[in-house]
Amino acid sequence: MFTGIIETLGKVIEIQTEGLNKHFLIESEISNELKADESVSHDGVCLTVTEVEKGKHKVTAVDETLKKSNLGNWKPGDKINLERAMLAKGRFDGHVVQGHVDQKAFVKNIENAEGSTVFTFHLIQPSPLMVEKGSVTVNGISLTCFDVALDSFKVTIIPYTMEHTNMGKLNKGDEVNIEFDIIGKYVKKLTEYYR
């Protein structure tokens, strides 16, 4: 489990394709602290570390993950958001994040809001799983959404987040990974079941 509070940025060093899978070699300031079998959120996607070597770690994405996320678009040199799993004794600063991407969205608009930046995202598949001022995860970042519609929503990004995540590298049309709030997913499932 994650909280959506990004620890650091990683850099994609190398990508290898093996059948339908892709292996990614990532360089980061936390790579040496990782170990094989550890779960780490990479742009909001929970991936298992398979190797650690001199400031770098390796993870593998299977076909289903590549289809549901933006990982298939990664190139060497890309910066990605990294977060290790939450410690049981840690503070819960964001919201409950599983690292299980629900779908992709693309950046519809970016506007300067006099000190912060407002992003509008268009969902590729409309969804009722967002509520006004609720939580959503964009590329692994826990954010509060507003102006919520079935196929779009907005978030406001403060300068600190722009500088310490890959939000500052996004352009109109770029794809991002979206994970809806798990509580909303359970409520939807239960209300459908008990109709």
UniProtKB/TrEMBL annotation:
Reaction catalysed by this enzyme: 2 6,7-dimethyl-8-(1-D-ribityl)lumazine + H(+) = 5-amino-6-(D-ribitylamino)uracil + riboflavin
Domain of life: Bacteria
Lumazine-binding repeats: 1-95, 96-191
Pfam family, one: Lum_binding
Entry function: Catalyzes the dismutation of two molecules of 6,7-dimethyl-8-ribityllumazine, resulting in the formation of riboflavin and 5-amino-6-(D-ribitylamino)uracil.
PROSITE patterns named in the record: LUMAZINE_BIND (PS51177)
GO molecular function: riboflavin synthase activity
Domain spans labelled Lumazine-binding: 1-95, 96-191
One of the GO biological process terms: riboflavin biosynthetic process
Organism of this sequence: Mangrovivirga cuniculi
Record flagged with keyword Transferase: yes
Name of the protein described by the UniProt record: Riboflavin synthase
Recorded coiled-coil stretches: none
Enzyme class: transferase
Keyword Thylakoid among record annotations: no
Keywords annotated in UniProt: Repeat, Riboflavin biosynthesis, Transferase
Pathway: Cofactor biosynthesis; riboflavin biosynthesis; riboflavin from 2-hydroxy-3-oxobutyl phosphate and 5-amino-6-(D-ribitylamino)uracil: step 2/2
EC numbers, comma separated: 2.5.1.9
